[in-house]
Amino acid sequence: MTRPAGSQFAEDLYEAQGAWAYDDHNQGWALLHLCIAFGIAGFDLVDQVARPAVEDRGPWETLLDIDNTPAVFLPWVAQCVGVDPGGLVGLTEFQQRDFIRDTAGWRRGTPAAMLGAVKPYLTGTQQVRMIERDESAYRLTVITRTSETPDPAAAERALRTQKPAGIVLNYIVSDAPIIDEGPLTIDDVTATIADATVADVT
Fold first, then answer.
1. In this structure, are 18 and 74 located in the same domain?
2. Which domain holds residue 12?
3. Which one, of 188, 176, 162, 185, lies nearest residue 86 by Cα?
4. Quick check: 145 and 127 in contact, CB under 8 A?
5. pLDDT value for 191
6. pTM score
7. Number of domains present in the structure of the chain
8. Which residues of the chain have pLDDT under 50?
């Protein structure tokens, strides 16, 4: 019977059995199959986080390493740094790692955290325009492009997970150019900016 291949955990466990495995090849590799089964049951994951992923690191450090921790642990890691794991729903593994990295809890409420939260839900250039203190010190406007926002509702939910307390969020999905000039805003320009009419200025 061909020797079955196991994970690193299964092979290490099998090797540790020593003399117990002396006749395993004549028994259909029963002991090796048992070691492989332990890995499939979840011990492989435990081994991945217990075994240092990078040289000179101690055991279990991999668990909190955003670049090396197994994907199944990402929601747990998110909570450890103050990120709402609900924001990971619907994201790929790569996007989840970036989301946790860009919206770490100690940056919650900052423009950088809001940008980091919404970008996984955008396509193309992922352009985000933000106007702080829009008409009021307590009003914030965020604009994403229509062509780059396939799910506006999901994008807005992501923004709200990072919105500062007490700030009113005005979320707009639009391809129209917006130029913030203090109290004046030029939008929906019908000609060049230099030839903008009074109707273009609000």
1. no
2. 8-51
3. 162
4. yes
5. 43
6. 0.49
7. 2
8. 181-184, 189-202
